[in-house]
Amino acid sequence: MRSLPYLARQGQVVWGFGRGSKQLGIPTANFPEQVVDNLPADVSTGIYYGWASVVSGDVHKIVSIVWNPYYKNMKKSMETHIIHTFEENSYGEILSVAIVGWLRPEKNFDSLELLISAIQGDIEEAKKQLDVPEYLKLKDNFFQVPKSKIMNNH
Ligand SMILES: Cc1cc2nc3c(=O)[nH]c(=O)nc-3n(C[C@H](O)[C@H](O)[C@H](O)COP(=O)(O)O)c2cc1C
Ligand SMILES: Nc1ncnc2c1ncn2[C@@H]1O[C@H](COP(=O)(O)OP(=O)(O)O)[C@@H](O)[C@H]1O
Ligand SMILES: [Mg+2]
């Protein structure tokens, strides 16, 4: 995917079906339609990993799913699980997500247990992939180092 890494900025966290935390024990911050509509065309459905920051808070590793949640619905949606434990919900807050790499296509699972273990596998894989120097540098480029400093380093 030529457009990766892609930084999806200014996504205000919206309410989804409320299943992420209740049924799976894995909450996902759901993005509003405008953010999903602005995704580059070559970001197809599937599971991705990357970095995210809520407002100007700390930067965390993430796994994201881009998918078509309804049968025959061509519209994409995007949800992000932040690999961090938060004290409070972030509904209404601005979440910036840098999508860095692709993990797998989305699949149908025969049970909730199989889905949960697949997502846990995604989380472990994302943690590992993001530890390479190239991706650690992206984290700084997107979220932490002032633009002027990045320019001076080049
Ligand atoms: C990293 C990740 C991968 C996922 N992969 C799949 C998948 O392959 N198939 C699937 O049916 N659901 C998958 N899910 C679960 C759902 O897309 C979604 O998170 C869940 O239904 C919660 O939705 P909600 O935010 O509307 O409550 C995945 C979720 C995450 C966080
Ligand atoms: N680690 C986390 N990653 C993503 N969202 C989190 C996390 N911890 C708490 N949350 C909160 O949980 C909400 C999502 O929970 P979820 O059960 O998926 O509900 P919904 O279906 O409304 O998206 C997010 O909007 C956010 O406010
Ligand atoms: Mg959610």
Automatic annotation (TrEMBL):
Keyword Glycosyltransferase on entry: no
Keywords attached to this entry: ATP-binding, Flavoprotein, FMN, Kinase, Metal-binding, Nucleotide-binding, Transferase, Zinc
Coiled coil: none
Residue ranges occupied by any Riboflavin kinase domain in the UniProt entry: 6-131
UniProt keyword annotation of S-adenosyl-L-methionine present: no
GO aspect biological process, one term: riboflavin biosynthetic process
Entry-linked Pfam families: Flavokinase
Pathway linked to the protein: Cofactor biosynthesis; FMN biosynthesis; FMN from riboflavin (ATP route): step 1/1
GO terms for MF: ATP binding; metal ion binding; riboflavin kinase activity
Cofactor: Zn(2+)
Entry EC number(s): 2.7.1.26
Transmembrane segments: none
Reaction(s) catalysed (UniProt annotation): riboflavin + ATP = FMN + ADP + H(+)
Gene Ontology CC annotations of this record: mitochondrion
Free-text function comment from the UniProt entry: Catalyzes the phosphorylation of riboflavin (vitamin B2) to form flavin-mononucleotide (FMN), hence rate-limiting enzyme in the synthesis of FAD. Essential for TNF-induced reactive oxygen species (ROS) production. Through its interaction with both TNFRSF1A and CYBA, physically and functionally couples TNFRSF1A to NADPH oxidase. TNF-activation of RFK may enhance the incorporation of FAD in NADPH oxidase, a critical step for the assembly and activation of NADPH oxidase.
Record-linked PANTHER family: RIBOFLAVIN KINASE, RIBOFLAVIN KINASE/FMN ADENYLYLTRANSFERASE
Protein known as: Riboflavin kinase
Organism the protein comes from: Sciurus vulgaris (Eurasian red squirrel)
